[in-house]
Amino acid sequence: MSTPASTLPSPADVLSEARRRRTFAVISHPDAGKSTLTEALTLHARVIGSAGAVHGKAGRRGTVSDWMDMERDRGISITSAALQFSYRDAVVNLLDTPGHADFSEDTYRVLTAVDAAVMLIDAAKGLETQTMKLFAVCKHRGIPIITVVNKWDRPGMDALALMDEITERTGLTPTPLTWPVGIAGDFRGVLDRRDGTYRHFTRTAGGATIAPEEVFPAEAAAAREGDAWTQAVEESELLEETGAQHDQELFLSGVTTPVLFASAVSNFGVGQLLDVLVDLAPAPTPVPDAEGEPHPLDAPFSAFVFKVQAGMDAGHRDRLAYMRVCSGVFERGMVVTNASTGRPFATKYAQQVFGRDRETIETAWPGDVVGLVNAAALGVGDTLYVDRPVRYPPVTTFSPEHFAVARVADTSKYKQFRKGVETLAGEGVVQVLISERRGDGAPVFAVVGPMQFEVASHRMEHEFGARISLDSLPYSLAMRTDEASVPAILASSGTEVMKRADGELLALFTTKWVMGMVREKPGVTLEPLVAAQLG
Ligand SMILES: Nc1nc2c(ncn2[C@@H]2O[C@H](COP(=O)(O)OP(=O)(O)OP(=O)(O)O)[C@@H](O)[C@H]2O)c(=O)[nH]1
Ligand SMILES: [Mg+2]
Predict the structure, then answer these.
(1) 94, burial (CB in 10 Å: exposed 0-12, middle 13-18, buried 19+)
(2) Which residue, 4, 324, 329, 484, is the most exposed by fewest CB within 10 angstroms?
(3) How far is the centre of ligand 1, averaged over its atoms, from the C-alpha of 200 (Å)?
(4) Count of CB atoms within 10 A of residue 276's CB?
């Protein structure tokens, strides 16, 4: 099937489509409300009819982005989820990330694929540990941040104190676009600092639908809300004196962060956030290749894979590779080259992703996140391109700190066990190491955080039908090594050498101290795995 030449997209089409894209991640410490906000955003974009539509009995568990049964059971996000939808004339690619530190490798990978981040702060808790770590990653990568103070419907900190905390702990200057009317726990609406109006929100039953919003001029707001309005105005003026006004360039260069106040669970302030994302968040820009050279947006199609996920659809046992388009136009059916292997890859099954739901797409543009189905030949970090070769920087893996031997509980399920281990390794749910001592019937799972073990066990049992036992090993540290170093390493106690699925040889140590001693030995090569930026 060939496309008539006249309808082929021109470089100008690519640029104008890229300009309409907004690709961002929602990040924060666990429980700040990322998945709830994600769902509220899709509700406001009128992609879903009501929030909490899929919730369990115990409350609003199970948002559109928390689709795994473990996520629904526990009410936490375990894996990042992609959602693509249109709003106004923009195409939004939203990535909801897990907050838990044990899953930070997944979050980190997502941050390689976005142009902006929405950083959530729980109004009662301020900037929490994991939020600070994620902030540091954004800063390092030059990702502009929009800050949302969430849960304003519940008692919390003073709004000005929160702004001070942002300034002191992140070095970013907060430039609130809205300011709350009513203290935390008495959320009536916001003062829109851009035009001085009052936006009053009305609660809906269970927060299932968009909260009606009424706009009042200042005088009417004063009459209506009294002291709460006066206080908001005074505080906003105070902010103005300290220079807390939005400046697009300073925002994009990571000096300032626009701030909005919201209650995701009641849908307050969510519509404003959506508009701010379209109005202020950056569109895709040329992505630097492995040499640091920005690759033009209007070059032929190129993309990189930042995530692989299996088991999304129990009926179809398929594997989805998520790619972020960096340049050109993607057309389903294109045969692209995988830069890591040099092999062609036919993109027959390409999908737009919405949490667990997917739909075939025909075309995609820079900024878009596309799911490629049954992409067994693709791994995290692979670059795909047509015509003009390019290679994007590899996506880093974290250094594991916990290790356990996995064994199948029922040996008649060995085949399922092998298949499951291979799949989980491919997704990066755990790193899989093989030791000579135990053989490949007893692979070692290596993880950044112990909750990854639970996810692996659960999926082995429920997805692959192979219940496993995990026996933890006493190691806490892994370094890259080579064959020549092995005898010297093993001569010290508290060490072991294993091979990772990707062929890398890893030396494991019980303590830093043991590792330090071994490293002093002549002829021993030990290199750190990528530093755990979030660990
Ligand atoms: N009162 C109140 N509760 C909220 C708000 N937003 C979220 N919650 C609740 O906070 C809890 C955590 O919400 P999630 O959206 O799952 O939080 P998360 O940031 O996605 O958590 P992880 O993905 O596990 O890191 C849930 O019980 C939500 O109902 C809010 O604005 N107000
Ligand atoms: Mg979540």
Answers:
(1) buried
(2) 4
(3) 23
(4) 20
Ligand 1, pocket-test mutation among 29, 65, 265, most atoms within 8 A of CB: 265
- Compute the distance between CA of residue 104 and CA of residue 89 in angstroms, rounded to an integer: 33
Is 147 within 8 Å of 163 (Cβ atoms)?
A: no
How large is the angle between the packed helices 270-280 and 34-44, nearest 10 degrees? 80
Across the chain, mean pLDDT equals 90
Binding pocket residue ranges, ligand 1, CB within 6 Å: 28, 30-36, 59-60, 75-77, 98-100, 150-151, 153-154, 263-265
Query: Measured between alpha carbons, how far is 338 from 381 in angstroms, rounded to an integer?
Result: 10
Q: Which of 438, 443, 441 is nearest to 453 (CA)?
A: 443
Give nearest CA residue, ligand 1 atom 23: 77
Q: How many angstroms separate the CA atoms of 267 and 52, rounded? A: 12
Atom of ligand 1 lying closest to residue 75 CA: 16
**CA pair distance 384, 326, nearest whole angstrom:** 10
Percent over 70 (pLDDT), the chain = 94
Q: Which residues of 369-395 are buried (b: 16+ CB within 10 A; e: fewer)?
A: bbbbbebeebbbbbbbbbeeebbbeeb
Residue 426 parent element (H or E): helix 414-427
- C-alpha 76 to ligand 1 mean position (Å): 9
Residues whose CB falls within 8 Å of the CB of residue 156, separated by 6 or more in sequence, listed in order: 122, 123, 124, 125, 184, 185
Vertex 161: Cα angle to 160 and 167 (nearest 5): 90
What is the pLDDT, as a whole number, of residue 149? 98
The DSSP symbol for 7 reads G
Residues 284-324 have pLDDT tens digits of 999 999 999 999 999 999 999 999 888 666 666 678 899 99
- What distance in Å separates the CA atoms of residue 446 and residue 449, rounded to the nearest whole number? 9
For the chain, the distance separating the N- and C-terminal CA atoms, rounded to the nearest angstrom, is 49
pLDDT of 459-494, one tens digit each? Answer: 999 889 999 999 999 999 999 999 999 999 999 999
Strands 350-354 and 189-192: unpaired
Cβ–Cβ under 8 Å, residues 228 and 182: yes
CB hemisphere CA count around 322 (13 angstroms): 32
With vertex at residue 373, the alpha carbon angle to CA 369 and CA 375, rounded to the nearest 5 degrees, is: 100
Query: Which helix (H) or strand (E) element contains residue 277?
Result: helix 270-280
The per-residue DSSP string of 101-134 comes to GGGHHHHHHHHTS-SEEEEEEETTTBS-HHHHHH
Rounded to an integer, what distance in angstroms lies between the CA atom of residue 444 and that of residue 405? 4
Rg (CA), the chain: 25
CA distance 55 to 58: 8
Closest approach atom of ligand 1 to CA 76: 24
Question: Torsions phi, psi of 80, nearest 5?
Answer: -75, 155
Pairwise CA distance, residues 62 & 72, whole Å? 5
pLDDT digit string (tens) for 94-130? 999 999 988 988 999 999 999 999 999 999 999 999 9
